[in-house]
Amino acid sequence: MSDRMTATKLLMCAAHLYPDELYNDIKERFEHPYKASTPEFGIDIAKIRKELDKSREQRKVKSVFLFVVVLLVFPLFLQNMENLNVLYIALFLASTAEFICLRSSKTKVRNMLNTDMQEDTDDITSDNVVVSGGYSPFSGAGFDLDSWSFCVDLNKRENEGAPLKEIKIDDLYKSIELSIQQLKIEGVVIKDQLFVDGRDLSLLPHLLSNGPLSRPICSVDKGYISSKINQNDPRERHYKVIHIGMWNFQVLLSMYFRFYSINNNLFIEGRFFLLPPLKEKFLNITNIPAKTTTEEFIVQQFSVNPYNSPSVRF
After folding, report:
1. pLDDT (tens digit, 9 = 90+) per residue, 99-117?
2. What are the boundaries of each domain within the chain?
3. Which of 200, 191, 190 is nearest to 233 (CA)?
4. Is the pTM of the predicted complex or chain greater than 0.90?
5. Cα separation of the two ends of the chain
6. Judging by DSSP bridges, how do beta strands 129-132 and 188-197 pair with one another?
7. Overall average pLDDT of the 46-60 stretch
8. How far is CA 206 from the centre of its chain?
9. For residues 85 and 82, what is the distance between their CA atoms, to the nearest angstrom?
């Protein structure tokens, strides 16, 4: 199993243990059918959503069962409020439903933690179009570590009388790639991407293959990407993107570089972002205890303090 799938597996487990919290974290990715599918480097969002849907469906079934229990018990209790046996039965059924739901979730988590997952390597590098909600396309890249931009006069000679050197944009990008590769850092992905302001999509029909109200495409031909290099196009901006996954891809360093020349002036831009790791409670999922037998479970719950309601561990 690759490092990339480690973060995915933890989030798949979190979908069963903390479904509501995880759903609130990622719901904006799914609620609108016309939102662009932003590529996720480091996780497989499709696998996570599949497990989240399963978990939420299981909890819906539990909620329906508890609602039926209330509908049946409440009228009986109103008929004879002195008969507490009805309430005891309702509490027993509710506790049993909660027990089954929790145990089922933790069983699924254990199975996922003990199973190697295969990743679709094509998803890592195939997406090359990012459509953002505004001019700045880096809102999902993490914390803004640093940025710089400057202009170089290409008519300025290194020394008086020295010949002017021809600057090729492709050579600048290749120099960056070579410098990164020489560091021999594992988990590096280098690719060319187009970044588009979502407000300009109506002027870019080739990104709306299924009509003006369709979801924007997330990949275009590499030749089209190449045609945007050294083009000062404000609607489709080309960047050389470098991702370095660290700590099992839970920390992601992203670097964005852009070069273009206009009227013998070379414009250079660099942006650097760090995506932080998963929440601590998600990381601690790997510490889930092994499954206990019924006898061990009973001893564990009542041997420490028989007068308090112990927490349930599975």
Report:
1. 888 888 888 998 888 887 6
2. 3-118, 127-275
3. 200
4. no
5. 26
6. parallel
7. 90
8. 27
9. 9
CB 242 within 8 A of CB 188: yes
Q: Which residue has the higher pLDDT, 293 or 216?
A: 216
Q: 95: alpha, beta or left, given left = phi > 0 and alpha = psi -120 to 50?
A: alpha
Provide the phi-psi class of 216: left if phi over 0, else alpha when psi is between -120 and 50, else beta. Answer: beta
Q: Between the CA of residue 241 and those of 191, 234, 253, 276, what are the distances in Å?
A: 5, 18, 11, 18
The span from the CA of 314 to the CA of 311, in Å, is 10
Mean pLDDT across the chain: 81
For residues 224 and 190, give the distance between their C-alpha atoms in angstroms, rounded to a whole number.
17
Helix and strand element counts for the chain (H, E): 9, 6
User: Amino acid identity of 25?
Assistant: D
Amino acid identity of residue 23, one-letter, is: Y
Q: How far apart are CA 36 and CA 42, in angstroms?
A: 18
Burial string for 254-285 (b: 16+ CB within 10 Å, else e) reads bbbbbbbbeeeebeeebbbbbbebbeeebeeb
